[in-house]
Design brief:
single chain; 871 residues; alpha+beta; seven-stranded antiparallel beta sheet; seven-stranded mixed beta sheet; 30 helices; 48% helix
Length: 871
C-alpha cells in the first residue's frame, strides 16, 4: 500500500474512564481490516486513526466504536452575532445546554463563538441554530464554513455603529450646548427639540432596546436592560417635560441621545479592539500557501495546495513559501522559520533536512518530498490548537462569571434604593433623585468583567504561538503561575537524544567482535542507545549476525541468542538479577566511565560478562542557562533518569541540578511525580512528548519539547515547537505575564464599578456638592470595556525576559566572531562555518549556498564592488 492512500481521522469518544477502556478501543480499531494505526488518548477522550480509505470508510470506524459500547461524540464551533456582555454568554450557554444531547458548551464573548460538544444521534447543528435564534441572537454559521460571510457581517456592524454614534454626536452635542445659551425656552423650541431628537434617538437606541427585550423574554437581565432603563427614563421624562407634565428641568433629550451614542461608540471601539486580539491566529492562517509547484513526469505543474499528496516532489524557488511539510531531497537554501518557531535567524536546509509548511525559502531553489499534507501539517495543527486554546477558560474566569451573575440584580437594587433614599427619605428634589438613578443604570458595566479574561487569554496564547510556545489550555496558564517544581527527563530533553559510542571494554574477546555481538542483538531494538551501537558497528563496516529469541526488559536491557549462545545486554542491575557477577577489572572501568557522565552497558555471553560499551549523549545547548533561570524564578529543578546514580549526578552537576532521581524505570516516572505532588509540590514535567506521555499527563503541567514537524501536539499542556530549553523558561514567563494581565484587568473592572457606582448614586453630593451627570457616566462606562481590551492588546508586543537576554547573548557572539555578507544574495554568513568560498584578487569571499558561489565565479566583477562586511 502506498503512502498516498493513507488517511487520518480523529474522533471524540465519551464513556472512556480509564486506560483499560482506551486499550480496548485501540484493540477494537486495530482489528479492523484497513486500520494501519490507532492512538487513543484517555485524558483527552480522542482517537486518531490512520487508515486505508480503499478498504474502510469513516462510518465503519464509528460503527466499530459504537459496537464496543462507547459513544462517538462530535464538536462544532458556531459563530454568533449580537452578544454584548457576559450576561449574553450565559443566556446562549443555557439555551444550548437545554438541548437533549448537548454534552458541553463554551461561549467565548471575545471571539463571538460557541464551542459545542454533542451526541450526533440526539441533536444537530440545525437544532442549535434554532436555539440561538430563539434567544434573539444572530446565528452566522459554522466556523470554517463562513469566513467570508463573518468578515462581511463584522464590517457591516462596524459601519452601522459608526453611523449611529456620529448621528448621536451631531444631534446630541448641539442640544447640550443649547442648554447653556441664554434664550427663552418657549414651547416652540421644546417641540422642535422633540422633533429633532425623536428620530435620532430611535435610530441610535433601537438595537439597545431590542437586545433588552430579548434578554427579558429569555428571563435574563443583562447590561442592555439596565442601559435601556436609563436612557428610556431620560427620554420619557423629556417628553413629559415637553408637554408640561414635568417642569423644564426634566428635559434630558441631549442626555438620552448622548448616552446611547456613548454606548455605541464604546461597543464600536471594543469590537475593533477585539478584532485585533485574534491577529496572531489570522497571521498563522495567512501563512498557509494556496499553490504548490509539483514535479510530475519531469514537468513543473502548479496545483492548489489541497491537491498535494504525500510523496509528491515539490519545487520551491527563492522567495517562495514551503507549501507542506517535507524532507529536502535536492539543493540547499536558507529558510525563514520565524513565523513558526519564533527564531529570527534563517536556517540552512540541506538534503535530508525537514522543512515546515508556511515557512519562506530565502535564496536558492530546493526540491523536497511531501511527508505531511492537509490537516496533518504542523501549521494546520498549530492553528487548530491555538483556536481551541483561545476559547478555553482558566479557572480564574469563574470569579468574573460569578460576579456577573449577581451584578445586574444588585445594580438595579442600588439604583432603585438610591431613588427612594434621595427622594422619599432625604427629601431631595425629584430631578436629583432621577438623575442619580439614571447615572447608576448607565455607569454600571459588567462587560469589562466579561472581557477581562478571554481577551488576555486570546492575545497571550496567540503571542505564545508567535514565539514557538503552544499553550493548549487556558487552565495551563493558571497552573504555571503556581508551579513549585520543574522535573526534566534526561535523555532527549536535557540531552540531544543522539547518543554516541565512546568506549569499548572487552574481556576475553576483541573489541570488534564485542561490538559486532552487541550490535547484532541491538539491531532489533528501537532504544536510542541501541541505535547508537548499531550505527557504530555500521561505521566500522561490521557485518551483523541474525539473532533469535529477542526479548526486551523495559528500562533494564535485552536478551537474544547469537549462534545458539545467550547474549544479555543491559545495566549492571539487570545482569545482577540474573546472578551474573561483574569482574573487578570491569567494575573499576565502570566506576571511571560513570564518573565521566557516560552510560555504561554491560554485555554477557553464555552467562559471563565479556565486556562493556560506554555511550554518551551530548547536553543540549543552553541547558545550563535554562536551569539557572528557573532557579532564579524560585523553582526547584529535578532531573529524572533511568541511568545509574553515578552517571546521573555527574551530568546533573554539569548543568547545575542538585536534585536527581536516578535508576527510575519509564513506568515508574509517574509514581515519582505523584510522590512530589503528595508532598504539596505543583509539578511541571518537561519531556520529549513521545516517550514520556504518561509522565506528561500526570504532571500538573506537561511541557513537551519538539523539533520541527515531529512536535507531538497531542501530548502535554504546553508544546515547544523547537528543542531550545530556554523556551521552557519563556513559556513560564509568558504564562505569568498573561495571568498578571488577567488579574490587572479584573482589578480595573471591579475597581471601576466599585468607585463609580457610589459616585453615580450621589455619595459625594452632601459633602462636596458634586454630581455625576448621566452623560459622563455613560462615557465612563463606554471607556471601561475599551480600557480592559486595550490592556490585553499590550500583550501582543510582550517579549519574555529570557528571549531579550538571549538576544543580547547572540549579539555578543556575533561581535566576537567575524560575520560577512554573501555578495550575491546579501545574506549574513559566519566566516568560520561557511562551506562555500572563492578567492578573487587575493581576497576571500563567503557564500551561503553553492548557487551564490557559482554566480560569483561566473562574473566576480558584478559583485566585488558591492561587498559588505561587519563585525
Amino acid at each position: 500500500m502506498t503512502e498516498n492512500r493513507k488517511k487520518n481521522f480523529e474522533l471524540k469518544i465519551s464513556d472512556m474512564f480509564s486506560e483499560a477502556h482506551a486499550l480496548e478501543i485501540k484493540n477494537t480499531l486495530l482489528s479492523l481490516n484497513g486500520v494501519i494505526d490507532a492512538k487513543v488518548s484517555f485524558k483527552n477522550g480522542t482517537v486518531k486513526v490512520k487508515y486505508d480509505p480503499t478498504k474502510l470508510k469513516i462510518a465503519d470506524i464509528e460503527k466499530a466504536v459504537k459496537n464496543a459500547g462507547y459513544k462517538v461524540i462530535k464538536e462544532v464551533t458556531l459563530k454568533i452575532g449580537g452578544m454584548t456582555c457576559a450576561s449574553c454568554v450565559r443566556t446562549i450557554e443555557n439555551s444550548l445546554k437545554k438541548l437533549d444531547g448537548t454534552l458541553s458548551v463554551n461561549v467565548n464573548l471575545n471571539a463571538e463563538e460557541a464551542h459545542v460538544v454533542y451526541n450526533p444521534e440526539k441533536t444537530t447543528v440545525k437544532n442549535m441554530k434554532k436555539a440561538v435564534e430563539e434567544t434573539g441572537y444572530h446565528y452566522l454559521g459554522v466556523k470554517g464554513e463562513i469566513e467570508n460571510l463573518e468578515g462581511k457581517v463584522k464590517k457591516r456592524n462596524l459601519r452601522d455603529k459608526r453611523s449611529k454614534f456620529l448621528v448621536g454626536f451631531v444631534v446630541g452635542i448641539p442640544l447640550m450646548l443649547l442648554k447653556y445659551v441664554p434664550i427663552n425656552t418657549s414651547s416652540l423650541l421644546s417641540y422642535s427639540t422633540l422633533a429633532v431628537s425623536f428620530p435620532a434617538f430611535i435610530y441610535i437606541s433601537y438595537p439597545i432596546f431590542a437586545a433588552a427585550y430579548r434578554s427579558i423574554k429569555n428571563m435574563n437581565l443583562n447590561m442592555d436592560v439596565m442601559y435601556s432603563m436609563g436612557i428610556g427614563v431620560a427620554f420619557t421624562s423629556s417628553i413629559l417635560s415637553t408637554f408640561n407634565i414635568l417642569s423644564k428641568e426634566f428635559s434630558f433629550y441631549d442626555t438620552a441621545i448622548l448616552l446611547a451614542a456613548f454606548l455605541t461608540v464604546g461597543r464600536y471601539l471594543e469590537e475593533k479592539a477585539k478584532g485585533k486580539t485574534s491577529d496572531a491566529i489570522k497571521k498563522l492562517i495567512n501563512l498557509q500557501p494556496q499553490k504548490a509547484i509539483v514535479l510530475r513526469n519531469s514537468n513543473e505543474i502548479e496545483i492548489p495546495v489541497k491537491n498535494v499528496q504525500i510523496n509528491d516532489i515539490i519545487l520551491v524557488k527563492p522567495g517562495g513559501k514551503i507549501p507542506v511539510d517535507g524532507e529536502v531531497i535536492e539543493g540547499e537554501s536558507y529558510v525563514d522559520e520565524s513565523m513558526i518557531t519564533g527564531e529570527p535567524v534563517p536556517v540552512l536546509k540541506r538534503e535530508g533536512d525537514e522543512v515546515i509548511g508556511g515557512t519562506i525559502n530565502k535564496n536558492s531553489t530546493i526540491k523536497f518530498k511531501a511527508t505531511k499534507v492537509g490537516r496533518e501539517t504542523l501549521l494546520s495543527q498549530i492553528i487548530k490548537l491555538v483556536e481551541e486554546a483561545q476559547s478555553s477558560k482558566p479557572p480564574i474566569q469563574r470569579i468574573a462569571d460569578k460576579a456577573v451573575r449577581y451584578f445586574i440584580p444588585v445594580v438595579l437594587t442600588v439604583a432603585i434604593s438610591s431613588f427612594i433614599g434621595w427622594y422619599l427619605i432625604l427629601h431631595s428634589t425629584l430631578l436629583f433623585a432621577l438623575t442619580c438613578m439614571i447615572s447608576i443604570l448607565v455607569v454600571a458595566c459588567p462587560c469589562a468583567l466579561g472581557l477581562a479574561t478571554p481577551t488576555a487569554v486570546t492575545v497571550g496564547i496567540g503571542r505564545g504561538a508567535e514565539l514557538g510556545v503552544l499553550i493548549k489550555q487556558g487552565e495551563a496558564l493558571e497552573r504555571c503561575e503556581k508551579l513549585t517544581t520543574v522535573v526534566f527527563d534526561k535523555t532527549g530533553t536535557l540531552t540531544k537524544g543522539k547518543p554516541e559510542v565512546t568506549d569499548l571494554v572487552s574481556v576475553g574477546i576483541n573489541e570488534k567482535k564485542l561490538l559486532k555481538l552487541v550490535a547484532s542483538v541491538e539491531k532489533s531494538s528501537q532504544h536510542p542507545l541501541a541505535e547508537a551501537i548499531v550505527k557504530k558497528a555500521q561505521e566500522e563496516g561490521l557485518k551483523l549476525e541474525e539473532s533469535e529469541n529477542f526479548d526486551t526488559f523495559e528500562g533494564k536491557g535485552v536478551t537474544a541468542k547469537i549462534n545458539g549462545k545467550e547474549v544479555l545486554v543491559g545495566s549492571k542491575k539487570f545482569l545482577k538479577e540474573r546472578n551474573i557477577p561483574c569482574p573487578e577489572e570491569i567494575e573499576e572501568k565502570l566506576f571511571q566511565l560513570e564518573n565521566e557522565g557516560k552510560t555504561v552497558i554491560l554485555v554477557s555471553l553464555s552467562g559471563k560478562i565479556c565486556g562493556a560499551i560506554a555511550v554518551t549523549d551530548r547536553l543540549r545547548e543552553k541547558a545550563k542557562e535554562a536551569i539557572k533561570e528557573l532557579k532564579k524564578m524560585k523553582l526547584d529543578v529535578v532531573m529524572i533518569t533511568g541511568d545509574n546514580a553515578r552517571t546521573a549526578y555527574t551530568i546533573a552537576k554539569q548543568i547545575g541540578i542538585k536534585k536527581v532521581l536516578a535508576e527510575v524505570l519509564p513506568q515508574d516516572k509517574v509514581k515519582e511525580i505523584k510522590k512530589l505532588q503528595e508532598k504539596g509540590e505543583v509539578v511541571a514535567f518537561v519531556g520529549d512528548g513521545i516517550n514520556d506521555a504518561p509522565a506528561l499527563a500526570s504532571a500538573d503541567v506537561g511541557i513537551a519539547i519538539g523539533s520541527g514537524t515531529d512536535v507531538a501536539i497531542e501530548t502535554g499542556e504546553i508544546i515547544l515547537v523547537k528543542d531550545n530549553l530556554l523556551d521552557v523558561v519563556a513559556a513560564l514567563q509568558l504564562s505569568k505575564k498573561v495571568m498578571s494581565r488577567i488579574k490587572q484587568n479584573l482589578f480595573w473592572a471591579f475597581a471601576y464599578n466599585a468607585a463609580l457606582i457610589p459616585m453615580a448614586a450621589g455619595i459625594l453630593h452632601p459633602l462636596l456638592k458634586v454630581d455625576f451627570r448621566p452623560e459622563f457616566a455613560g462615557l465612563a462606562m463606554a471607556m471601561s470595556s475599551v480600557t480592559v481590551v486595550t490592556l490585553s492588546l499590550l500583550l501582543r508586543k510582550y517579549v519574555p525576559p529570557i528571549k531579550k537576554n538571549f538576544g543580547t547573548v547572540k549579539k555578543h557572539v556575533k561581535e566576537a566572531r567575524k560575520m560577512v555578507v554573501d555578495p550575491v544574495c546579501k545574506m549574513v554568513v559566519d566566516e568560520e562555518t561557511a562551506r562555500f568560498r572563492s578567492e578573487y584578487r587575493g581576497k576571500t569571499y563567503y557564500f551561503c549556498s553553492l548557487s551564490c558561489k557559482e554566480a560569483f565565479d561566473e562574473n566576480p566583477e558584478k559583485y566585488v564592488g558591492k561587498v559588505l562586511s561587519h563585525k
